[in-house]
UniProtKB/TrEMBL annotation:
GO terms for molecular function: glycosyltransferase activity. Residues 5-168 form the Glycosyltransferase 2-like domain. This is Glycosyltransferase family 2 protein. The chain crosses the membrane at residues 228-251, 263-288. It is an enzyme of class 2 (transferase). It comes from Mucilaginibacter antarcticus. It holds the Pfam family Glycos_transf_2.
Length: 313
């Protein structure tokens, strides 16, 4: 019998855990697989860990991994994937927005030969505001334009991974992980399923605006060096444009124009180019900072406790 591992990162989801387990049991009741649930407590401040231990005590197929602090969703996903031993691994959120009833369909596509079955949100999602829809479209359009991967608008962390894909993902030990891009990057036979997210069962989304901005910037830099090329191109363009100023200087000297004229435009130009230089240096510094952090070889996560045997890693 094939084994299915479902990896679920959880941050302050104490009221959702029991409902999710019940929904998963209902969706998987008729499948011919041995399956397990691996919850990763990503430094929750509420009683998520207490609830996970209670579920593990009453369900033999529920396991938990308690991280030492909040490392972030992608690192929590990696912790669960590193410890999972299924022939296929499914990752999903704990807030019940990822519909468990899609699991049989994902498994069917896996049996048909697909190595990765991912999901992406429909544009008609009623639980997302106009600004969020607009920002999501622009983000994916931008990252597709400047990187070597293509991400569907609204692609999510609700996906199925074959064990050979998981093996390759386990070899990756990057400082900043962007799993949505990484899964696309590894290749293999992939197919996408559109879905409409459900409303959160309880609680609120933990991503703030600035966290989303940080995620966007980090994901772009994780899969592209084009910002460096853009910075180089800007420098070259404005350097060439500055040469066009030479004829103006010569004419001014020749005809004796007032040397004080144009001081406002000069100050504006200096301020503009100063800001441009700081932007370019910031881009270069960001890449250097990532290299610096990568050379430290710190672990992506630290496990404080788990009811899984450590030998599984």
């Amino acid at each position: 019998m094939k084994k299915l591992s479902i990896v679920i990162p959880a941050f302050n989801e104490e009221e959702n855990i029991s409902h999710l387990v019940a929904e998963l049991d209902k969706s998987l009741a008729d499948i011919a697989y041995d399956y397990e649930y691996i919850f990763v407590n990503d430094g929750s401040k509420d009683n998520t860990l207490v609830e996970l231990k209670a579920q593990a005590a009453s369900h033999s197929n529920v396991f938990y991994i308690d991280l030492s602090k909040n490392f972030g969703k992608d690192y929590a996903l990696k912790a669960g994937i590193d410890m999972a031993k299924g022939d296929a691994i499914i990752t999903m959120d704990a807030d019940l927005q990822h519909p468990p009833h899609l699991l049989p369909q994902m498994l069917q596509h896996w049996e048909e030969g697909y190595d990765i079955v991912y999901t992406y949100r429909k544009d008609s999602n009623p639980h997302v505001g106009r600004f969020q829809k607009f920002a999501s479209k622009k983000f994916y359009k931008f990252i597709n334009a400047i990187s070597d991967i293509t991400l569907e608008n609204g692609i999510s962390d609700f996906r199925l991974l074959d064990e050979k894909v998981v093996y390759e993902l386990k070899q990756i030990n990057e400082y900043e992980i962007f799993f949505r891009g990484m899964v696309k990057w590894v290749g293999f036979q992939q197919m996408g399923i559109p879905y409409t997210p459900a409303a959160r069962h309880t609680g609120e989304a933990s991503y703030s605006f600035w966290k989303l901005v940080k995620l966007a910037v980090g994901s772009i830099m994780a899969f592209s060096v084009k910002p460096l090329y853009i910075a180089t191109g800007l420098g070259l363009f404005f350097s060439c444009a500055a040469l066009l100023y030479i004829p103006y200087i010569l004419i001014s000297k020749l005809y004796g124009f007032d040397e004080l004229s144009g001081w406002a435009s000069l100050i504006a130009t200096v301020a503009f180019f100063g800001g441009l230089q700081l932007m370019v240096l910031g881009i270069i510094g960001s890449y250097l900072g990532k290299i610096f952090m990568q050379t430290k070889h710190r672990p992506n996560y630290i496990i404080r406790s788990t009811n899984l045997p450590r030998s599984r890693k």
